[in-house]
């Protein structure tokens, strides 16, 4: 009998006959391709009819609808918490309340500070509010273009300690991290005025604010640092 190709053949040493092992399929023990695949994959369901294409499409559609509903719910929640700026403006107009920009507010504050009709308390209040606005770089640049910076520098010469203190505070806030304002301030004589305050008899709050303004001017500004040394700034600091 012909031996099928690929069969396992052995020699029986007792009888001298050659014996061949028949394939499992011929012994009735063979597995179908599907059964072998099932064995290889274990208990995984490989039935192609488990989910039809229509069922998959429906499932995806439900997922999209669910996401859309969640997004709408989130948008509705945001609308409840916040209102459009146009609506707020309309409501403020009904209440006779006008929304002003930072620029407009600073113009009014500078005008109040520079007005001879303003009292000392009003001028101090104007400087106090200005300090809040000029912290922002863009506002500080606008403050410079309005002429407010020079007014504050001139305020360092005031005979009123409160004005001198708050003028130095506004100056320091405007100078912080703002190279353009630093250049204009040193050209406007701010460095000399600050050193005079620190070198003369002044109330402690005034000197503290002057020191703050001086530090803001010198930070990352080599030219101001050179001028500080030329004007004897180190000796002034040693005497504090």
Description:
It is a single chain. The chain has 13 helices and 2 strands; from the N terminus they run ββααααααααααααα. The longest helix is centred in the first third of the chain and has 29 residues, at 53-81. The chain has 240 residues and is mainly α. It folds into 2 domains: 53-99; 102-238, Leucine-rich Repeat Variant (Alpha Horseshoe). The protein has helices at 33-41, 53-81, 85-94, 102-114, 120-133, 137-145, 148-155, 161-175, 179-187, 190-199, 204-218, 222-230, 233-238; strands at residues 8-11, 18-21. Strands 1-2 form a two-stranded antiparallel ribbon.
Secondary structure: elements and pairs:
Elements: E1 8-11, E2 18-21, H1 33-41, H2 53-81, H3 85-94, H4 102-114, H5 120-133, H6 137-145, H7 148-155, H8 161-175, H9 179-187, H10 190-199, H11 204-218, H12 222-230, H13 233-238
Helix proportion range:
55-70%
The number of distinct structural domains comes to 2
- Strand proportion, as a percent range, falls in under 5%
Any guess at the CATH architecture of the largest domain?
Answer: Alpha Horseshoe
Short précis:
With 240 residues, the protein is mainly alpha-helical.
Keywords:
Leucine-rich Repeat Variant, 13 helices, mainly alpha, 240 residues, translocation
């Amino acid at each position: 009998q012909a031996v099928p190709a690929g069969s396992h053949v052995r020699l029986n040493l007792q009888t001298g006959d050659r014996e061949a092992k028949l394939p499992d399929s011929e012994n009735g023990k063979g597995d179908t391709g599907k059964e072998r695949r099932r064995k290889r994959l274990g208990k995984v369901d490989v039935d192609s009819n488990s989910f039809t294409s229509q069922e998959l499409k429906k499932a995806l559609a439900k997922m999209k609808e669910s996401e859309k509903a969640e997004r709408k719910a989130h948008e509705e929640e945001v609308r409840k918490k916040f209102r459009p700026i146009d609506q707020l403006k309309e409501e403020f107009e009904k209440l006779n309340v006008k929304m002003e920009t930072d620029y407009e507010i600073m113009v009014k504050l500078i005008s109040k500070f520079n007005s001879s009709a303003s009292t000392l308390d009003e001028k101090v209040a104007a400087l106090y509010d200005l300090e809040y606005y000029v912290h922002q770089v863009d506002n500080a640049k606008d403050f410079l273009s309005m002429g407010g910076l020079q007014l504050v520098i001139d305020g360092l010469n005031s005979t009123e300690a409160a004005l001198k203190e708050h003028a130095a505070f506004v100056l320091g806030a405007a100078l912080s991290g703002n190279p353009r304002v630093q250049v204009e301030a040193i050209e406007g004589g701010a460095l000399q005025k600050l050193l005079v305050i620190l070198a003369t008899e002044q109330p402690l709050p005034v000197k503290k604010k002057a020191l703050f303004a001086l530090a803001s001017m010198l930070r990352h500004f080599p030219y101001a640092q050179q001028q500080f040394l030329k004007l004897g700034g180190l000796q002034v600091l040693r005497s504090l």
